[in-house]
Structures are given as C-alpha cells and as structure tokens.
Amino acid sequence: MDAPTKQPEVFESPTTRQLSNRLGAASPENADGRRIRGRQRDISWALIALTVPMMLLSYFILFLVFHYRVNPHQFVTPNLAFNTTHKDSGVIYLDFSATIFITLASWSSTLAPLLVGFIVTLISYPVARSILHAAESGDTAELLTPYELSLVLRILASSGLGSLWQWLSYTLRWGRKREKRSKALKTMTTTLALGLLLSFLVLLTDSWLHFATETVLINLTTLRNPDTPPSYSFALTPACATLGNDCIFNHSEYTPTQDALDDTSKTTRIKTHTDDLDSETYTYLGPPQDPGLNSLDYTARSFAVKTSCTLLEDRCPRSVMKLNDGTDAWSCLDLLISLEDMYNPLYQMFFYTNSSMTQNSTVGTLDSNPFYFALLVHVFTVFMVLEPGNCSTSVYDLEYTSVDNRITRFTPTISNLSVSNMIKRSSQFQQFATVANFQAITTAMIPPYSYPIIDHTAQTFNLTALSLSFSRIFLAMAIQSFKPVPVIEYQVREPHLVARVPIAPLSAHLIANMLFVALGLVLAVKAARALHHDVGELQARLGIPALVAALFEDRAWRPVAHIEDMFDERHGIVGVRVDFGPQAEGGWGFGAAMGEGGTLLGSESELGSTRGRGEEESG
C-alpha cells in the first residue's frame, strides 16, 4: 500500500499571518462598508485616452486627404487631356503643405508611447482578478512571488522598455532558480509587450510616411471666368450669311488683310499644321500670339485651306500647252507677249471650275470645292495638282484642340460651296493680291529670284513653299469675312506645389493608429468584466503607494475610499518620516522616525513589531 503523498509545507511567517488577519479585518463586510471607489471612472478615462486621440488624429488625416485631394489627371473634357509625368497610381496628391501634413501625422507617433500606460492600467483589472482568484482558491502557485510583485509594480509605475527588459532579465538570467511564473505576471508582461509593439509600429509607419511624402510640382486644371471664355474660334460674319458682294474683300478696308499677311493682327494669326494621320499640311485661322496660351488649353472651330501644285510642263519651247477651254494652242511666244502686256509681267493666274482646266471661273459663279487655278510664270513654267489639272485649293470647316500650345486634335471637314466661293472670290481681286502673289512666287523660286531671269532652263520652284504661300494669301484675302467667337471648351493649367503622399505608408499609419483603438476597446471590455466584488479594491492597492503605506502607515490596513486616505499626512496628522540606513543584520533598510525631529524607531521589522503591539493594545 502506497504511503500517502506528503503535502509540501507552506512556510507562514508571522508577517504573513499578520497580513492575512489584517486583510480579513479590512474587508468591507467586516468594516464600515467603505471601499476604494472610482474604478469604473478610471476604466472610462483609460478607454477615452486610448481611443479618442488616435481616432481624432486618424479622422483628421482622412479629412485632409479627402478635402485637399487633387487629381493631376482630371481635365475639363477628354479632348483637353494632356500628358503628365505623374502617372503612378499608388499615390495621392494633396493641395496642402507636405511639411504640415507629415507634422500632423507624426503626432500619433509622439502620443503612442504615452498611451502604453493606459493599456497597462486596463489590463491590471484582469490581473487583479487573477491574483484574487488564486488567493481565494488557495492556488499558491498562481500567486506572485515577491520579485514578481516588484516587476508588476514596476510595470504599473513605468510602462516602458526598461520594465520589459527587467522582466526579460528575470526570465532568462534567473533560469532554474526562479519559480514558475504566475499567470498574472504573464498577462501583464504580454500586454506590455503588445502595447510597446504597437507603439513601435506607429513610429515605424510614421517614419515611412515621413520619408515617402514629398513636394512636387504638377499642373492642375480649372475654369477661369467660365462665363466669358476666350474668343479663339472663328465664324462667318453676319454679312456672309448670303452670297452678296459685301461679304468678300473690301478694298477700302484692306488693313485686316495686310495685318494677317504680316502676322501683326491683334485678333487673328494664319497658322499651318501638318496632320499626323494623312501627313497633309493645312493652313488655318488661329489666335494671335499671347502669353496666356502657354497655360490655356482649348477646342475651337475655324476654317482651313489646303493648296497643292505640281509642274504641268517643264519649260518652253519643248511643248505646246492648252489652257482655258482646251481649244486655243498657246505657244511660248504667245505666253511671253501676254505676260509683257500685264500689270505684273512675272506671272498670270487663271481660275477654273474643274481640274481639267476646260471651264473658266468668274466672279459671282457658284463653283466647286476644291477650286482650281493655273499659274503662268515668266520662266514659262506652269503648275498643277497631282491629279491631271492645275493647282487645287480645298476649303475646310475645322475643329481642333490645342493643349500645352500643341495641336492634339485636328479634324478638317470639307466646307460647303458658300464658304469655298467666298474665299475664291476674295482672291480674284488681283489688284490687291498682286504683291502678295509676287512675293509667294519669288520666294518659291530656286535659285532665288532675280530680274531679269537670264537662264530659264535652270529655274525651278519649291512647290511646298508655293502651295503654303497661296493658302495664306487666300485666307488673308477673305479675313474680313470672319470674326472671332468663343471657343467650344477650354481649361487653364496652373502649376501647383502639392504633397505627393504614397497610399501604402499612409494606410499603414492609419491602420497602426486604429490598432491602438481596437486594443483599447478590447482591454476596456475585459477590465469591465473583471471589475466585481473586491477586484477594484485589490487593483487600487496593487501599486507603490499602497505598498509604502503598508510599511509605514497603520491606516493601510483599514477600509478607505481613496489610496491617499491610507496616509496620516492626508488627515493632517504628524506621522513618521522614512529613514534609510544600515541595519543590525549588516545590510541596509528602511526605518522610520516619529514626527518632526522625533526619535528613530528602528528598522522596518522593528516598526512592524511596534505596530503589532500597538494594535493589540488598542484591541
């Protein structure tokens, strides 16, 4: 038969018995019913401290993001979209100072280490419940050892890395010497480590956000004076609604035409554009040079012409040419005689209604679009279009888009006969166009023009330059038929210094902040559930003030409403003074002196014996 297992003897010192008796005597059921109050309020304040600041900071950061966020890819219309170097999708842009933004965001990293103490405060209630349960159930293995109690008190007093390091040293360096760690200490240190980890996470994400956020220069689009858009489009004047002669060139008001040819007009500029789709070069009416165009994007309607010419014959007298109705045979001598009789002996110009040059065109007739003309030059060279015929000019209704002073969309549509004939008829008033035509021809000559031309066989022409010159002349001659009108759409590009904030560090920082909030809510619920019966009393006494009072104050063993009530000084009574010095055993310890300048009572052990006797006498 096995011998009964011998239970380990538990040493109970006189001090232990004294503490047990006093704890029993101090129970609210055995006293006047007073107990330490305000525990619910402390839990509420700890919860508010953990959640409200972090939530307010996070919400404020989100407010800045949504209120000041700008989109560098946002345009008034898709037609006005422009290329931007800021195409990364993982960032947001704020029309806000980057320095101020990261400073505001860094407040949470400053606040996070200060909030760890409130985390420890909340977990102290479940810890106190664990200690009380172990004491009531007699589970001494789950009670705190004196050194573990010192660690718990240190964590409660200073919730920092030093306290955690002290616990690690106790765990690792003491090794087998230490007793089994109690559940209360494990809970306390684990929660402290979690709080410090979250604090470090907030600091880490804040540093990431700080280094990733930068100030960049981007173009933002806006509508400036939307009720008065710029007048860069062109439309026909009211007089051009009919085919009356008052719509075409007016000799008495030739200044607009001359200004257009000289590029000095304040309302119009004749420009050229080579289309990327068909590689054709068009001449069109556009706005004059203006510094405001550097920051203005717009879509406008206008008019354009395109002239094409090629050589019909090389030089006389190698062949005979048929012009006009095709029945008259013109020799080189006939051409020379007719040119010498002209006002301008350099060239002669003929307009036709068809590409085969068989039907003459006269002022007032409704011809075709394109219209045709032949050019006879003193060097006996004739020009024509690529197809069989002569020079060809097409007139277009134009819609184009200018972005960043570049044409990004160019859509010509063949004009109706009214517009085409208006431009052609204006050009048929040769008296004013003579000088312009003369300049166009001589400029296109290769080698450059000199009069008289001696070597006819060596003379040729730059057909591209000649075609563009006549396109300019046709538009300039008809300039009085057009007027500036508002554009279809427009936007103003304004450079802005904005904060470029990557989404990843910003999201990580906000998540770290909200983890503090979540932890606070969880711990507050656990603390509220643990707060019953004497848990609040034990939690309040689980601190350095209560421990000091237990050493030096008789009131520490009495029921009180507040921790401060344990001290005689709180009640205006002259109490002991704490002394520290060598003891009879050879070490150092605390002692107490009665009153101001009173006698030294002795060491802490002697003080306890004196108190015991005093209480017995009072009892």
UniProtKB/TrEMBL annotation:
Stated name of the protein: Uncharacterized protein
Region annotated Disordered, chain positions: 1-35, 599-619
Bias (Low complexity): 601-610
Classification lineage: Eukaryota, Fungi, Dikarya, Ascomycota, Pezizomycotina
Transmembrane segments: 43-70, 191-211, 506-525
Superkingdom of origin: Eukaryota
Keywords, in A-Z order: Membrane, Transmembrane, Transmembrane helix
Protein species of origin: Trichodelitschia bisporula
